[in-house]
Amino acid sequence: MASAELQGKYQKLAQEYSKLRAQNQVLKKGVVDEQANSAALKEQLKMKDQSLRKLQQEMDSLTFRNLQLAKRVELLQDELALSEPRGKKNKKSGESSSQLSQEQKSVFDEDLQKKIEENERLHIQFFEADEQHKHVEAELRSRLATLETEAAQHQAVVDGLTRKYMETIEKLQNDKAKLEVKSQTLEKEAKECRLRTEECQLQLKTLHEDLSGRLEESLSIINEKVPFNDTKYSQYNPLNVPLHNRRHQLKMRDIAGQALAFVQDLVTALLNFHTYTEQRIQIFPVDSAIDTISPLNQKFSQYLHENASYVRPLEEGMLHLFESITEDTVTVLETTVKLKSFSEHLTSYICFLRKILPYQLKSLEEECESSLCTSALRARNLELSQDMKKMTAVFEKLQTYIALLALPSTEPDGLLRTNYSSVLTNVGAALHGFHDVMKDISKHYSQKATIEHELPTATQKLITTNDCILSSVVALTNGAGKIASFFSNNLDYFIASLSYGPKAASGFISPLSAECMLQYKKKAAAYMKSLRKPLLESVPYEEALANRRILLSSTESREGLAQQVQQSLEKISKLEQEKEHWMLEAQLAKIKLEKENQRIADKLKSTGSAQLVGLAQENAAVSDTAGQDEATAKAVLEPIQSTSLVPDVESREDLIKNHYMARIVELTSQLQLADSKSVHFYAECRALSKRLALAEKSKEALTEEMKLASQNISRLQDELTTTKRSYEDQLSMMSDHLCSMNETLSKQREEIDTLKMSSKGNSKKNKSR
Question: Exposure string (b/e) for 255-289, b if CB count within 10 Å is 16 or more?
Answer without folding.
Answer: bbeebbebbebbbbbbbbbbbbbbbbbbbbbbeee
